[in-house]
Amino acid sequence: MVDTSVTLSGLRLDNPVIPASGAFGFGAEFAKLYDLNILGALAFKGTTVEPRFGNPTPRIAEAPMGMINSVGLQNPGLEAVINEELPKLSEVFHKPLVANISGFSAEEYAACAKALGKLPQVGIIEVNISCPNVHGGGMSFGVDSKLAATVTREVKAVTTKPVYIKLSPNVTDITEIATACEEAGADGLSLINTLSAMRIDLKTRKPVLANTFGGLSGPAIFPVALRMVYQVYEAVSIPIIGMGGVSSAEDVIEMMLAGASAVQIGAANLRNPFACADIIRELPRAMEKYGINRLEDIIGGAHR
Amino acid sequence: MEKMLLKVTENVKIAKNIYRMRLAGEGKAKPGQFVNIMLGGLFLRRPISVCDAAEGEFTIIYKVVGRGTELLATYPTGKVLDVLTGLGNGYDINLDIMRPLLVGGGVGSPPLYLLAKRLFELGKTPRVVLGFNTASEIILENEFRDLGLEVNITTIDGSRGTRGFVTDAIGCLSGVEGAKEGFAGAVEGAEGTGDFDYVFACGPEAMLRAVYDATQVDGQFSFEERMGCGFGACMGCSCKTRYGYKRICTEGPVLKRGEIIW
Ligand SMILES: Cc1cc2nc3c(=O)[nH]c(=O)nc-3n(C[C@H](O)[C@H](O)[C@H](O)COP(=O)(O)OP(=O)(O)OC[C@H]3O[C@@H](n4cnc5c(N)ncnc54)[C@H](O)[C@@H]3O)c2cc1C
Ligand SMILES: Cc1cc2nc3c(=O)[nH]c(=O)nc-3n(C[C@H](O)[C@H](O)[C@H](O)COP(=O)(O)O)c2cc1C
Ligand code: FES
Fold it and tell me: Which region holds residue B137: left if phi is over 0, alpha if psi is between -120 and 50, else beta?
């Protein structure tokens, strides 16, 4: 028997597979399809203090080997997440939650972190400083190392739970932001969020998305994500949750060889609602195929 | 929702750029529900309404409008498709109504066929108004007639049936934005089409709006939106309603008249 378990900031996960924020809602749709407790952990939809509708539609576009979304952080707001969504989720899911939070000010991030950090279900606070969809919001924190550090400190100050900063790939040098977050006290890093992208409809000659720009995800971004995880792994010594286009057990192994301690799966769940279950089932077989006994042993194994 | 592997048993052209596909598989679907089909080489699935569901078979009717539907049209019989089935809320048919009116626009007409069958089973005889751009795009006219239903066809260019929009056939022109005057009288067999107590509609949003404005009775309207997943996970398809935000793929595609915000 191979060992698929991994550890994130002292948190033991049975396997490194975590559905990514925004592609799994609050789990309800998937709980009807399979037992969610096979997952390593679960990252729920990005939560803000106030309820948000998000951007106008259309907010989804096809892309070669991927998709572009401009959902714009639609969520029911902190109070409804705590009082309605998470109690429902706790009935079907008993593993750690990754609480993905967003905000338009450092105070808003802190308010979300404080409230969600108190919940015993929450294992990790994941701070989305990178969502490229919201004007004047996430983007500015994610592309500026000083702002990223400020948010990290504010969130660290209000919770005892491990704080992972989720980085934007839409920057000149991702290691600069990563280092700033580590210095500001981040317990770990999640990367990458979606890449800023667009499509144009040839018939109307106008952008497909009502918001013009959205975020690219899916297999198209896997090699980019892999490169960034590899680079950040060399720059920091805190654990990394790798994501971006992961769609198979082989991708999980590749991402971990680049330096990820765990892996998140986003867009793949939308195309194949059983993606996480399939990957978890295939993982031991893929490990055997590549001669891996303990998955944890391969983290960063690709570095020279 | 169920993820199924369904074999194509028929894929034929039935009108200009419009195809009918039959898929072998346990045909459980409520009228107004849709399936979401994975297509080789494309990332996102494509949502298509269920036109008919019988023992062991689904029928869908689709129009070729872009890469996905172009690809779908090339699939030979025998090909196995990865399909998510039983998506969406579907039409609510447990209603105290006598004479429903079904209004379909173009490839919005297919889901009304299964609906008509189910209403018929409940002892209700719906009237049917189907609107198309032109005669060569007409679909399902005979199929509805074969159910024993009265069908009014409209075409925008007047090449068949009533010239104009479905609202011209409904014969309630008052308040319809942009409706041409004088067509009410020109509607073939229009007498009595006003005699309905409920509306079920599916078609382009402009048509839905016109039907909404042209009718006073209660009804249900089926909407479309670009979808990321089709089963409620991505929030790609949200819309605002009088009762909060809803996902077209899950709390829709059918919205009740009273909840719609245009
Ligand atoms: C619930 C639902 C039921 C549907 N039922 C049917 C049906 O029974 N028959 C049928 O022919 N079509 C139906 N559609 C529309 C169908 O999904 C689109 O025409 C199809 O996805 C287009 O894919 P494509 O790759 O060919 O076109 P693309 O290249 O993706 O786009 C071409 C054009 O199609 C339109 N389009 C693309 N995706 C969608 C979408 N998800 N919804 C609406 N319009 C879209 C866009 O306006 C675009 O300009 C339905 C859509 C929904 C949401
Ligand atoms: C529809 C959709 C919604 C998303 N919403 C969020 C979000 O609310 N918060 C967040 O941090 N990331 C969000 N993401 C980004 C994903 O969590 C992930 O970082 C990114 O999509 C790359 O992974 P993937 O290629 O596996 O999808 C979203 C992605 C998608 C496709
Ligand atoms: S299409 Fe994903 S939630 Fe409706």
Answer: alpha
Contact A181, A152 (CB under 8 A): yes
Is there an atom of ligand 2 within 6 Å of A217 CB?
yes
CB pair distance less than 8 Å for B44 and A59: no
Number of domains in chain A: 1
User: Which of B110-136 are b and which e, b meaning 16 or more Cβ less than 10 Å from the residue's Cβ?
Assistant: bbbbbbbbbbeeeebebbbbbbbeeee
> Which residues are paired to B103 by β-bridges?
B129, B201
pLDDT at B187 over 60: no
3-state secondary structure of B189: coil
CA distance A116 to A26: 14
Determine contact: B235 vs chain A, CB below 8 A: yes
Closest Cβ opposite residue A67 in set B43, B84, B233: B43
In this predicted structure, the answer to whether residue A198 has a pLDDT above a threshold of 70 is yes
Q: Do B3 and A274 touch (CB under 8 A)?
A: yes
- The answer, yes or no, to whether any atom of ligand 3 lies below 6 A from the CB of B245, is no
CA distance A163 to A126: 6
- CB nearest B226 (choices: A32, A33, A57): A57
Distance (Å) from CA B228 to ligand 3 centroid? 5
* Nearest alpha carbon to residue B21 among B33, B34, B7: B7
**Domain-located, residue A1:** no
- Cα-based torsion angle of the residue sequence B174, B176, B180, B183 in order, rounded to the nearest 10 degrees: -50
- By C-alpha distance, the chain B residue nearest A245 is B43
Which ligand 3 atom is nearest residue B232's CA?
3
Cα dihedral A133, A134, A137, A142 in deg (nearest 10): 0
Q: Is A212 helix (H, G, I), strand (E, B) or coil?
A: coil
Which CATH number goes with the domain that contains A246? 3.20.20.70
Distance CA B223, CA A228 (A): 41
Going from the C-alpha of A229 to that of each of A172, A191, B105, the distances in angstroms are 15, 7, 50
Q: For residue B37, what pLDDT is reported? A: 98
Distances (CA, A) of A180 to A129, A185, A200, A226, B44: 13, 9, 36, 20, 37
Whole-model pTM: value is: 0.94
Whether residue A220 has pLDDT greater than 50? yes
Residue A105, pLDDT score: 87
The domain of A77 spans 6-303
Catalytic residue check, A276: no
Domains and CATH numbers, chain B: 2-87 (2.40.30.10), 100-224 (3.40.50.80)
B200, B115 contact by CB (below 8 A): yes
Q: From its phi and psi, is residue B47 left (phi > 0), alpha (psi between -120 and 50) or beta?
A: beta
The residue whose C-alpha atom lies closest to atom 29 belonging to ligand 2 is: A22
CB contact under 8 A, A25 and B233: yes
Rounded to a whole number of angstroms, the CA Rg of chain B reads 18
Could you give the C-alpha distances from B176 to B36, B131, B203, B214, B258, in angstroms and in order? 34, 16, 16, 6, 19
Q: Where are the alpha helices (DSSP H) in chain A?
A: 28-31, 78-80, 86-92, 106-117, 138-142, 145-158, 174-183, 222-235, 249-258, 268-271, 275-289
